[in-house]
């Protein structure tokens, strides 16, 4: 994952060849925290450099402008979320257990702001360069979920007439809904019920 992130930054951000005096990934994590909480428009340059622990000049030299930093942050955040979803999906002896684990993870973290949902709310598909960052992540997650639904069909744990791709879309939509509900103040019991009803719809 670290290699892919570095390759993306080299290709997309035009990083300078000179050695840096800070950890690029750690700085990006600081930017992610700000963008998650405040969005793109609400994040000031001072907020970002304070959270990243770097100077404004280092920010511009390394990441380009604020928008390119945002795209890098969305990509790194999305890669981390996908990795966590994949780990959950692979857990359990049966596919349905992995799907349940993914939903439970979302419930457990739903009170935290999601940069993926936030970026969709803030920009939709209005920015092609952001869409290019998000599209392969969304496609990979959809494929992974659909594959587990197929496994569930083979195991006889989900309804036999379910379309794997449509079911993956359904699950992703419900994941977003649970996260919005969590940020809106829904308690753990309410979020758990949403996850349970989502899982029940597969049977």
UniProtKB/TrEMBL annotation:
Q: Which InterPro entries match?
A: BetI_C, Homeodomain-like_sf, HTH_TetR, Tet_transcr_reg_TetR-rel_C_sf
UniProt domain HTH tetR-type: residue ranges: 28-66
Taxonomically, the superkingdom here is: Bacteria
Question: Pfam families of this UniProt entry?
Answer: TetR_C_6, TetR_N
Instruction: Extract the GO molecular function terms from the UniProt entry.
Output: DNA binding
Q: Does the keyword Protease apply?
A: no
Which controlled-vocabulary keywords does the entry list? DNA-binding, Repressor, Transcription, Transcription regulation
Where would I find the BetI-type transcriptional repressor C-terminal domain in this sequence?
Answer: 121-200
This protein is called TetR/AcrR family transcriptional regulator
Q: Which organism is it from?
A: Limobrevibacterium gyesilva
């Amino acid at each position: 994952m670290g290699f892919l992130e570095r390759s993306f930054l080299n290709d997309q951000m035009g990083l300078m060849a000179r050695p840096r005096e800070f950890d690029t990934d750690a700085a990006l994590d600081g930017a992610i925290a700000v963008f998650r909480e405040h969005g793109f428009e609400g994040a000031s340059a001072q907020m970002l450099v304070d959270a990243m622990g770097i100077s404004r000049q280092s920010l511009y030299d390394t990441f380009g402008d604020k928008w390119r930093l945002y795209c890098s942050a969305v990509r790194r955040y999305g890669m981390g979320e996908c990795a966590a979803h994949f780990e959950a999906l692979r857990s359990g002896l049966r596919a349905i257990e992995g799907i349940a684990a993914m939903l439970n993870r979302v419930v457990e973290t739903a009170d935290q702001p999601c940069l993926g949902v936030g970026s969709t709310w803030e920009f939709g598909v209005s920015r092609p360069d952001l869409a290019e960052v998000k599209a392969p992540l969304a496609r990979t997650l959809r494929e992974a979920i659909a594959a587990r639904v197929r496994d569930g069909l083979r195991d006889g744990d989900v309804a036999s007439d379910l379309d794997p791709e449509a079911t993956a879309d359904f699950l992703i939509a419900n994941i977003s809904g649970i996260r919005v509900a969590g940020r809106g103040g829904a308690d753990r019991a309410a979020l758990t019920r949403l996850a349970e009803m989502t899982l029940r719809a597969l049977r």
